[in-house]
Amino acid sequence: MAGKMMHAAGFIIITILLAGSTPAVANDSTPIPADGSQVGSWFDNNVKPLTERKGTLDAAIVTAEDGPKLIKVMKDGSGNFKTLTEAINSIPERNTKRVVVYIGGGVYNEKIKIPQNKPFVTLYGSPNNMPNLTFDGTAQKYGTVYSGTLIVESDYFRAANIIVTPDGIRPDAQAVALQISGDKASFYNCKFFGFQDTLYDYKGLHFFKDCYIQGTVDFIFGKGKSLYLSASEDNEFSFVHCKITGTTYVRGTYLGRAWGSSPTVVFAYTDMADVVHPERWSDFGHPERSK
Predict the structure, then answer these.
(1) Is pLDDT above 80 for 27?
(2) Any signal peptide, and if so, which residues (predicted)?
């Protein structure tokens, strides 16, 4: 697996702010600018309104975004549903239209799964009152892959302005906040909290912008792909214009460890606090993976 984050000694909390990474080269092949202040305009120039991009998108996306459906989840009963589970269950299988699930503020204690046969789903919260999706699932009970509070298996998923966290972030509580295995997913202004294995970037093309991810051991891991292919496996994590901060008793936090045979991780234009181990990377006891 690519890019497993880890600590070497002491208790550590790491935070990462993803502000400009992208799963594909820009439309005009211009690279992400080195100047962080230009990332916003670079993004706007390349991710244009649907009306200006129909000729560059696959037909399924164009069809899905033409007349999307809105449903509301409100804890006070003023929406279409009180729970996200009910809202997801209401979406027909093999849907071809975008379904935007607006989530009102509050804490939603549910284990949420977007199955493979329900593409084009958006979870959207208010940026001023972000909903918190939480569930007390652990790897010991469900296994790492299925311990996620939010599990997304479908393609063309989006999320904006939501918080996802396992219930009870505590030492030895290995639990995934988000497991994403669908292709062509994007996340905007989302926050993911956990202890160990916070974000399981399982597989597929995924884009995170202005997101916050916090955890300790291996808190970002998987075989997702972004920016470009690695030499021998179809996976890579690229963090662009990010911030890595945290607390630890010693400078013992590696940027990643070689959990699999061909891990590839890129940090570009990124601010790193002195919490990062001077050696930067761990070969995880496999010197042949150092390259």
Answers:
(1) no
(2) 1-26
- DSSP-derived pairing of the beta strands 211-215 and 13-18: antiparallel
- Distance in angstroms (rounded) separating the CA atoms of residues 82 and 30: 44
Domains present along the chain, CATH in parentheses = 4-289 (2.160.20.10)
Per DSSP (E only), the strands in 150-234 are 150-152, 158-160, 163-166, 178-180, 185-188, 191-193, 199-209, 211-215, 220-225
Q: Are 5 and 252 in contact (CB under 8 A)?
A: no
In percent, how much of the chain has pLDDT > 70?
Answer: 83
Give CA angle at 21 (199, 197), nearest 5°.
Answer: 10
Burial call 245-260: b when 16+ CB within 10 Å, e when fewer: bbebeeebbbbbbbbb
For residue 58, CA distances in Å to 30, 55, 182 come to 21, 8, 17
Q: What is the structure's pLDDT at 155?
A: 97
- In angstroms, the CA 238 to CA 270 distance is 11
Which of the residues are catalytic? 218
pLDDT in tens, 44-62: 888 888 888 888 888 999 9
Residues linked to residue 4 through DSSP beta bridges, in sequence order: 257
pLDDT 10s digits, 186-202:
999 999 998 888 999 99
Nearest C-alpha neighbor of 61 from the set 157, 174, 151: 157
Please choose, from the candidates 81, 83, 58, 85, the residue with its C-alpha nearest in 3D space to the C-alpha of residue 70.
Answer: 81
**Any idea which residue has 């945290």 for tokens?**
246
Q: Is the pLDDT of residue 230 over 70?
A: no
Q: Is the pTM of this model over 0.85?
A: no
Contact 217, 248 (CB under 8 A): no
Looking at per-residue pLDDT, the higher value among 122 and 250 belongs to 122
